[in-house]
Each structure stands twice: as structure tokens, then as C-alpha cells.
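Saturday, quiet lab. Running sequence design on the C-alpha cells for the scaffold JK sent over.
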């Protein structure tokens, strides 16, 4: 009969080199999880700060600024310009007009009217495109309609128009529309191939037009709300949730090490009861005859 093993305390097991090595490994994993959690929290805070900067810039501005002053053609779109008011002058090209399908407004799904505007003045008196191949094209979302058969809403004003609206960043390229004249994304990268360039890297969500286009009450397009940065109102909850997830994973790594030490200490106590270190409810491996042996009992 094997000699009983003396019971070991939690701290006696925890001081073993192998267990200390596991502790270091788990602490490193916990540190990585904690750092990822902090990074996600920083991301949430940055989104909130960016939204605050956007609102502050809008309040400080004396009024709408020229599109070219804020966003020269073919320059990258900075996030703080989302929702910023701007003005521009030019002529619509009704032949290039597209409907952006599957867009919701007030719980209803319909279409955005996307019309190219050949710019004549963007606030820079032509300086913003002086080194380019010609006057730029600006995508303009003139409003929302529920069905593409609303003819009054589809016709843009003739001649030179002066527009005021909200800037919005280009979307990622989509798969294309389900029929000619339709598209599933407002992607300047895709539109420049269809409308020509140069082009701005964002688009304008129409607020007002001179001369005016038909209003929604007159059968024209419904006006869209001011664009906002996605998740940018207050602390971003999605990033905060991810941060909490990483911290929970880090805590779990430490708890797993504690559980392993406790189980090993408990295993030592079981061996003092003559269990031979086996798993409770199963026979002691030392008492099992090896294959091919014959019992002498």
C-alpha cells in the first residue's frame, strides 16, 4: 500500500516553479486583455470627442462655408466634417441622376435622389481645382422618396443653383443597383467612373436650394436629417462593451490559475485518503492490471 502523501496548502502549491510559470503566463494574458480593454475605451472616448468637436465647429461657424474651403476636390475627407454646413453653386446634370435604393426615413424604406452637380463656385473662386483637369463634380443627395415613380421629386431645378447642405463622407463601394438608374451605395470612387471627375471625396445632403426644388408637401423629395458620426453621440456603447469583454477575459485568466492551484492542492489531500491521485469515482490506475497480465488472486 503506497505511503500517504502529506496534504499541501494552497500557498505551498502556488510556490512551485511550474505553477509560478503558469501564473506569469496567465498574468501576461491578463495584461494583454487589460490593454485591449483600455484601447477600446479610448476608441469610445475618441468617437465622443470627435462628435463634440463637430458640434463645436458648427456652433462657432458664422454660417455655411464653401465646400471647396472645407474640402478641396480629390482630398481626403476628415471625420470632423460630417454634418458640417456648406454651400456650393453649379448646375445639375439630370442625365446622370441615380436613385439609391433601400434607404429608410421615419421607418419607411425608399430611395435617395442622388444628382451630380457640375460646380461653378465652391467658395474658392476656382482656386481649389486650378491644378486639376477641370471643374469638379459634387454628388448631391436632394432628398428621399418612397417610390421611384414620383416624377415631381425626380426633376432637379434648371440652370445655376446655389445649394446649402450638410457634408457627409463617401460610402464604401457596393455591389451595384438592382436595375439601370439604381445604385446601392454613394461611393465617390464608383461615381467618378460614371460621372467623370475631378470629384470631391464626400457628398452634400441638401438643406436648401435657390431656386427651390418642390417640397415634400408639393410632391417633392422629403428632406433628410443632419448626418452624424455613427456611434458618436456620447460615449460609444459598442466600444465600451468590447472593453468590458476584454477585462472579463483578463480576470478569467487569473481565476483559472487560482482554480488550477486549488484543484492541485485538493488532489494532494485526496491522495492522503489512499486515492492514489486518481479521479474521484474511478479506480486507482496503480490497481488496474496491465493488458495481457493474469490476476493471481
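Result came back. Writing it out in full:
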Amino acid at each position: 500500500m503506497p505511503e500517504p502523501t502529506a496534504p499541501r496548502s494552497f500557498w505551498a502549491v502556488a510556490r512551485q516553479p511550474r505553477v509560478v510559470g503558469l501564473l506569469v503566463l496567465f498574468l501576461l494574458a491578463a495584461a494583454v486583455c487589460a490593454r485591449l480593454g483600455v484601447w477600446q475605451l479610448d476608441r469610445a472616448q475618441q468617437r465622443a470627442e470627435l462628435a463634440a468637436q463637430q458640434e463645436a465647429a458648427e456652433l462657432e461657424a458664422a454660417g455655411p462655408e464653401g465646400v471647396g474651403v472645407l474640402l478641396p476636390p480629390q482630398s481626403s475627407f476628415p471625420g470632423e466634417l460630417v454634418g458640417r454646413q456648406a454651400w456650393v453653386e453649379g448646375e445639375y446634370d439630370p442625365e446622370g441622376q441615380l436613385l439609391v435604393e433601400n434607404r429608410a426615413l421615419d421607418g419607411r424604406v425608399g430611395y435617395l435622389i442622388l444628382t451630380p452637380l457640375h460646380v461653378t463656385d465652391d467658395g474658392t473662386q476656382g482656386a481649389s481645382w486650378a491644378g486639376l483637369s477641370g471643374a469638379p463634380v459634387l454628388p448631391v443627395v436632394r432628398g428621399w422618396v418612397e417610390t421611384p415613380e414620383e416624377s415631381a421629386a425626380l426633376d432637379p431645378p434648371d440652370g445655376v443653383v446655389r445649394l446649402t447642405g450638410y457634408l457627409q463622407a463617401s460610402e464604401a463601394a457596393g455591389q451595384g443597383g438592382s436595375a439601370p438608374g439604381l445604385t446601392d451605395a454613394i461611393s465617390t470612387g464608383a461615381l467618378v467612373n460614371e460621372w467623370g471627375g475631378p470629384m470631391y471625396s464626400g457628398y452634400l445632403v441638401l438643406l436648401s436650394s435657390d431656386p427651390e426644388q418642390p417640397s415634400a408637401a408639393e410632391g417633392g423629395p422629403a428632406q433628410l436629417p443632419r448626418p452624424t458620426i455613427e456611434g458618436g453621440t456620447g460615449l460609444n456603447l459598442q466600444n465600451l462593451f468590447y472593453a468590458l469583454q476584454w477585462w472579463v477575459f483578463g480576470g478569467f485568466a487569473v481565476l483559472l490559475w487560482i482554480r488550477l492551484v486549488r484543484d492541485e492542492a485538493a488532489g494532494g489531500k485526496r491522495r492522503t485518503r489512499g486515492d492514489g491521485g486518481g479521479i474521484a469515482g474511478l479506480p486507482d490506475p496503480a490497481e488496474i492490471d496491465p493488458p495481457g497480465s493474469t490476476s493471481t488472486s
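Notes for JK: Residues 121 and 139 are 15 Å apart (CA to CA). DSSP finds six helices and eight strands in the chain. Ask whether to fix the surface positions before the next round.
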